[in-house]
Amino acid sequence: MECKIYQLGRNNPVAEAVAKPLGLLVVGISALLVITNPSPKDFREFAGTELAEQAVAEFCPPGKLPLMLRLVVQNCPELIRAQREPLGALADQFSQRLNFGLFSVYTTQLAGGQLLPQLSLPGYELKTLAVAGQFLVLKATESNAP
Questions:
Q1: Is residue 96 within 8 Å of residue 114, measured between CB atoms?
Q2: Three-state secondary structure readout of 16-45
Q3: Which tens digits make up the pLDDT trace of 10-36?
Q4: Interatomic CA distance for residues 109 and 95, integer angstroms
Q5: 13 and 49 part of one domain
Q6: What is the model's pTM?
């Protein structure tokens, strides 16, 4: 009975049969990730939408706005959602992008006092992963210091 033992490396038909398709798969997936790595413009759109929805949840529930403001603001959610573009630009202004080619990581640091110095607003720091055309908030922290 003859037993063949194959070594990894040269002249190994099993390794060669697996390596070529695997190599092509890795190259293909890498190319796809590079192509679909979201751009700063994509981040602005994502951040603007996220900030608008957070603001709607914070300011627009029934009874949340003062009576005088409710007389002026007829449709609170619509008013806030119309500000997606400026909110995205604001997030971009306070964000830093680390582009790794296959994906990006955005770090947004926003002190409440930077926005409205006359109000005591909390600060926020967010880390967002951008990969394959998608965004995922990895970490969000709030600080009480303005």
A1: no
A2: HHHHHHHHHHHHHHHHHHHHHCCCHHHHHH
A3: 666 766 777 778 888 888 899 999 999
A4: 6
A5: no
A6: 0.76
Q: Count CA atoms closer than 13 A to 64's CA, side-chain side.
A: 12
Name residues of the chain where pLDDT drops below 70: 1-12, 14-15, 112-122, 144-146
- Cα–Cα distances in Å, from 114 out to 47, 67, 105, 119? 18, 28, 23, 10
pLDDT at position 55 is 83
Radius of gyration of the chain (CA): 25
Q: Which residue has the tokens 């529930």?
A: 61
* CA separation for the pair 87, 40 (Å, rounded): 14
Task: Supply the pLDDT for residue 67.
Answer: 76
Q: Which domain holds residue 45?
A: 37-143
Calculate helix-pair angle for 84-93, 40-59, nearest 10 degrees: 120
* Residues constituting the chain: 146
- Is residue 25 located within the same domain as residue 87? no
